[in-house]
Specification:
The complex is a heterodimer of chains A (about 375) and B (about 100). With about 375 residues, chain A is mainly beta. Chain A has one domain: Methylamine Dehydrogenase, Chain H (7 Propeller). Chain A has a four-stranded antiparallel sheet, with no helix packed on it. Chain A has a four-stranded antiparallel sheet with strand order 4-5-6-7, with no helix packed on it. Chain A has a four-stranded antiparallel sheet with strand order 10-11-12-13, with no helix packed on it. Chain B has a single domain, classed as Beta-grasp domain (Ubiquitin-like (UB roll), Roll), CATH 3.10.20. Chain B has a five-stranded mixed sheet, with helices on one face. In chain B, a hairpin with a 2-residue loop joins strand 3 and strand 4. The longest helix of chain B has 11 residues. Chain B starts with a strand and ends in a 5-residue tail after the last strand. The chains are: A mainly beta (about 375), B alpha+beta (about 100).
Chain lengths: ~375, ~100
């Protein structure tokens, strides 16, 4: 029977949750790296025993941890993220130029095919690549050096590159998202990039449909249909069917189209999940009800999933990298809250239960489906 | 060469895989940079956690204390106090109290 391993990053350590394919009983292993912020943990699709973890603190900075045995043991690997050349400046919150300064790794995206190749999305926004299992890192600086780069401004969480999608059939094509610059695509393995933000409207910008400046919170696609990408923006849920050349809003009947994560059902590229949050000032669910919204139609028509989720006095948030799916059928859906709970649905969202409670605030959730 | 003893904050002890103070070999009449260089040579995992990789500047919330003095703002070529070199005190790397 297949196994499922859930990789949870929290404000105070990493936790690994394992279950068999029934996804009923769960074993909790952790904390790993107790007391450190773990922004992200992700496994290699090519070797599920290879894990990468982003470990950081305001005191000691960035550490990168690698496991070669599925998280039983870890080794600190390279943590030098030097921007290529003379980095120059981006815009600060007040509009003044601000030097590009590395703060932390928000997201690791291992190559679909090579366990030693992994991409890191960092704050201040940049994309790095390692081809030696995290031992050393090289910036793909064409992104940061895009002609718009000097105009990028941080969102409330910093100027962070938080989302990386790699087309598994054509790894030269990647999508990234930056808060608050927007979405970008490369078709030549990072040698050049183009902003892909047509159709986005952001009233907090002087020009609401500007080429860059949009606070994109998360992107997701189904690996079998990489030209169709779904987006949870600061406000609005959108989709593109032409690799980002044009986006259209699919918020439809959501109770709020503000939110952070977005995920696609592993068995159906037209089924997607978001977690409605009341507003950008109130980072908690509308009406104190924690609900996952599911669309089976690729957007616009949404049903609110509540079975097993708290429907009273719930004021947690679900952050952008804190929702993921497994590869079983029916699809398992998982998300973690800032209240320290991780919820799982083994039936595509129809029913939920917490698989661990009272962890530190959850920053990220990833899922591995193991043979 | 001589030996000085360095006290690390708990997180860095864990990262370095040590349970107490560590001794590092430094040149006679060492300066602050000599101690940090030796520390990072003995425990490469600490590179980037006390000083920035490129600039070798002290990270903002890491402090250096010895002999009841704050050496954090002293230049890297500042001599290590004699009692530390003589083994009567330790060079302390301290995580600043910050964030509540």
């Amino acid at each position: 029977m297949a196994q499922v391993r859930v990789l949870v990053g929290t404000r105070k350590g990493a936790f690994l949750l394992t279950s068999d394919g029934s996804r009923d009983g769960w074993k909790v292993d952790g904390p790993h790296f107790g007391g450190w912020e773990i922004y992200h943990v992700k496994g290699s699709p090519a070797d599920p025993d290879r894990l990468y973890a982003s470990q950081s603190s305001g005191w000691a900075g960035q550490v990168v941890q690698r496991s070669d045995d599925g998280g039983r043991s870890w080794e600190a690997v390279g943590n030098e993220f030097a921007y290529a050349g003379t980095p120059g400046t981006h815009q600060w919150y007040d509009g003044t130029p601000h030097p590009w300064e590395f703060a932390r790794v928000w997201h690791f995206e291992p190559s679909p095919h090579d366990p030693d190749t992994v991409f890191a999305g960092v704050e201040d926004a940049g994309l790095f690549r390692s081809t030696d299992g995290g031992g050393s890192w090289e910036e793909l600086d064409a992104l940061r050096n895009h002609s718009t780069g000097q105009s990028w401004q941080p969102g409330a969480g910093g100027l962070c590159l938080h989302t990386i999608l790699i087309d598994p059939a054509n790894t030269d094509r990647m999508y990234v998202a930056i808060s608050a610059a927007g979405a970008f695509r490369t078709d030549d393995a990072g040698k050049s990039w183009q902003p892909i933000n047509k159709g986005l409207r952001s009233p907090y910008l002087p020009d609401e449909d500007a080429e860059v400046g949009h606070c994109v919170h998360n992107l997701a696609f189904h690996p079998s249909r990489p030209d169709t990408v779904f987006m949870q923006k600061h406000w609005d849920v959108l989709r593109t069917d032409d690799a980002g050349e044009q986006w259209s809003e699919i918020s439809g009947d959501l109770p709020s189209d503000f939110g952070f994560p977005i995920a696609v059902d592993s068995n159906d590229p037209d089924t997607l999940f978001v977690v409605p949050i009341k507003s950008d000032l109130e980072h908690y669910p509308p009406e104190g009800k924690l609900r996952v919204a599911r669309s089976r139609t690729g957007g616009n028509e949404w049903e609110l999933l509540t079975n097993g989720l708290p429907q009273k006095d719930c004021y947690v948030n679900v952050l952008r990298d804190a929702m993921a799916v497994d590869a079983l059928d029916p699809c398992g859906v998982y998300f973690g809250t800032t209240g320290g709970d991780v919820y799982a649905s083994p039936d595509g969202g129809d029913s939920w239960k917490p698989i661990v409670e009272h962890l530190p605030s959850v920053l990220s959730v990833e899922v591995q489906t193991l043979p | 060469m001589t030996s000085v003893t360095v006290a690390l904050p708990p997180h860095l002890r864990t990262l370095a895989g040590v349970s107490g103070n560590v001794a590092v070999e430094v040149p006679a009449e060492p300066c602050i940079a000599d101690v940090l260089d030796a520390l990072e040579a003995s425990y490469p995992v600490l590179r980037g956690t006390i000083r920035d990789h490129g600039t070798l500047q002290r990270r903002a919330f890491m402090r250096f204390f010895a002999c009841e003095e704050d050496l954090s703002h002293e230049p890297p070529d500042t001599p290590v106090p004699a009692p530390v070199v003589a083994g009567r005190d330790v060079f302390r790397v301290v995580g600043a109290i910050a964030g509540g």
